[in-house]
Known about the structure:
The chain is an all-alpha fold. 79% of the residues lie in helices and 0% in strands.
Amino acid sequence: MENAQIYIIVALCIYAAAMMLIGVKSYSKSKTLDGFLIGGRKVNAWVTAFAYGTAYFSAVVFVGYAGQHGWNIGIGAIWIGIGNAVLGCLLSWLLFADRTRKITRKLGTKTMPEYFEKRYDSKNMKIFAAIIIFVFLVPYSAAVYKGLGSLFSAVFPSVETWVWMLIIACLTAIYLVAGGYIASAYADLVQGIIMIVGVICLVIAVLCHDNVGGITGLFENLKNFRPIEGDTNPVTGDQLSSIFGGSSFKFLCVNIMLTSFGTWGLPQMIGKFYGVKDTASIKRGTIISTAFCLIIGCGAYLVGSSSRLILDGKLPEGGVDSVIPTVLIEVLGNSIIGLILFAVIIILLLSASMSTLEAVVLTSASAVAVDLIPAVSRKEIKPEKQMKLTRILCLAFIVCSFIFATMNIPIIVSLMSFSWGVVSGCFIGPYIWGLFSKKITKIGAYAGMISGLATVGIATLVISIASGFSSAAAKSPEMGVCAMAVSLVVVPVVSYFTRKTAKDNDRIDKIFECYNEE
């Protein structure tokens, strides 16, 4: 383990130097608000595609989801990775990327709340959207910190978890505050390359392990697997080898829908489309991003599904969150080449999480600096002051997320469970219908937002009264899926029964002209 720690420290120093260099180099391109938030709308296909993919996958996916679902479900968990690539990435790019790029340019918007304000002519809707982003995305970033801190603590048991979280916070702050979206996008490109190399190497190492025996051996050995005596969560070989998840099929479907369709309404994901250079870049980016997500998603869940074989069915002391770190040590800890790969994988997990962190922090900071403060104060803030305020808030949100992660504040921990479902459930209907239909009204958009939030809120209250809050938190994926479905249905239905004025019709006609201008 000491040798592994040395390799990891060396790799971490090289990585940190690269990230700081990117931040310094990007500073000159982020002196305007447009440059800081959306890269001046001149970002190419490769950079945007990797920015989208790396924001999608964090250490929570590898350490949490892949480890937990791979251990409990088996080979069928790979469908989550496939679903994320096809539904969460490919379909999102095909349906929304070009339309989002065109309409946000026409409206001159840089954030999701700004889009709602100008698409539906409502400042109050912008304020409501900004509050939702702030309340639910900052706690989500705290969860990412905790995941990373736990991972590094498993490798460096003598170092406190908060120390690693502080290092990660400082590193994120340096290049994000200095270079904004451009720095984060180019950092994502570097991080994405590291992630691809790391996942491919890890999958090869796992498949070559004696207990796995390649692809054919993986299926055969999973089918023949028998739980060890005393296993508190025994799973049979038939379950682990079932291609469609066996008895966990319903659970699998819910998680695929939440983690795939959820991205359709998340501002930190949709925001990647604002800065794409042109339609040609969208077409290339669709292919690149989908390929990236297939490699990362399927690779992560493949490793997780082999974990019971590699660990001989013994769940590590740290529970399912320790499955992937323990697999890494078992597979890569016995040779110099393996230790080098181990260091690369740790940097992979760091890269995945930092890309998610920067996207969430930039989204949260812009929601407050660009959307909330000017709307509440009712004063026009000069772009230069907004620029400084956004940088300061980026730093403030990084600090807040770090504090929340170290303090284990109950309300913050609770909000983490619902973050994806609430944010996407509120935004998905007004955002998507606003792109495609002229008939959507302001009241319809409001109804979609409120119904999405109410779906999660009412369900949480009812389940908490009946069975306790922990049961409600366990049902948060189902609530999130329901909230998204409700929002998508409510927006057009309410719009059908409400009217727009002639002025609204003229304004919306002019907005939709953007789709015919190129």
